[in-house]
Please model this.
Amino acid sequence: MYFNLKDRSLIRVTGSDCLKFLNTQFTNNVLNMGVNSLQVNAYCQHQGKIQCLVWLINSNGNFYISVLTELKDKLLNLLNKYKFFSDVDFEDVSSKIYQIGIADCHNPNDLLIKDNLYLRLSNDISSINCSDHAEWEYQCIINLLPELNEINTEKHIPQMINLDLDEFGVSFSKGCYPGQEVVARMHYLGKPKRRLFVLQSSQFCQIGDKLISKESESLKASGTVIRTTNINESQYILAILEVKNLEREVYLENDPHTKLTIVNNPAYALY
Model:
């Protein structure tokens, strides 16, 4: 299945210092990227909370950043603010290059995002039969691929969305980046109380909705919805949830009659 990712912008990164600079800003080890590869990264603020998630792309030695369009200006403002005298420039090339999401089927030149999800950059999509975007959201949800939009920005640390697992989106052996001290402290000295899970809902939920468990002792909500889609009259949700509530009933905070069910997935066994 192919999907035209029209909700994402593509930024070309050029300059002799581009990789060195990006490595000081993002959570993953940018210097370890191979040719024709994609790397998921978080851009954190000083408290370790994620300002935006990005896909850093090396396409035949050309570097791009893929980001949700609604966070593009925020990202560019941050990058330009901190580049100082670095030889690095950013150009929005979204109108020139299409981003094609691919689920299950792919060719050797497609870029692996996570598990069964791939990305293809193309100058022409006229010959590609693209499926509905709701199906792409479903594929992202069942593959536990997180996304944070304007509603959920600057609220969650990387561990809450599983970026630390197998160092998928965070490197714990690279140099400094904004928020590194907080992220590293959680990795070496703590244990995340909240993780990412797939749920199904009996009623409609929206991104940013809070989840509760009646047995929770936390003063905060038990969870937060970060991604949703409706497929075959069912709503699938990607949510950050208290790990200790995995065996408890979870409800929508503003509608206690809406019950959510955790879907069995590979991450479930980790806890």
About this structure: The longest strand covers residues 50-59. The chain has four helices and 15 strands. The mean pLDDT is 90.
